[in-house]
Design a protein that fits this description.
Helix content is about 50%, strand content about 20%. The protein is α+β, with helices and mostly antiparallel strands. It has a single domain, classed as 2,3-Dihydroxybiphenyl 1,2-Dioxygenase, domain 1. A three-stranded antiparallel β-sheet has the order 1-2-3. Helix 4 crosses helix 5. The longest helix is centred in the first third of the chain and has 10 residues. The two termini are about 20 Å apart.
């Protein structure tokens, strides 16, 4: 929950930079990766060796594709999100 709150205020790239500058990067076992549906994630271990995955919200992924010129239908197909979800991202 805490990370979710942070990422609503900070971009994923800025978070990655923080992880690297805080020397947490030694515990990163999956660097920044983009899934086929466009969402970027990073995985690292906390001090107790639990896996933490941080991903950009799908609303941001949808908006990224829309700003690149994709139609709502194309974004829906690419992200596998319902067309209603994609449309609602445009009116928020």
């Amino acid at each position: 929950m805490v990370l979710n709150c942070i990422l609503k205020k900070v971009s994923l790239i800025r978070f990655i930079n923080f992880v690297e500058s805080a020397r947490i990067h030694k515990k990163v076992f999956q660097p920044l990766t983009q899934a086929p549906w466009g969402q970027r994630t990073v995985r690292f271990l906390d001090p107790d060796n639990h896996v933490i995955e941080v991903a950009e919200p799908m609303e941001e992924v949808v908006l990224k594709f829309l700003h690149q010129g994709m139609t709502e239908q194309e974004v829906s197909e690419k992200t596998m999100m319902p067309i209603e979800f994609v449309h609602n991202c445009t009116i928020q």
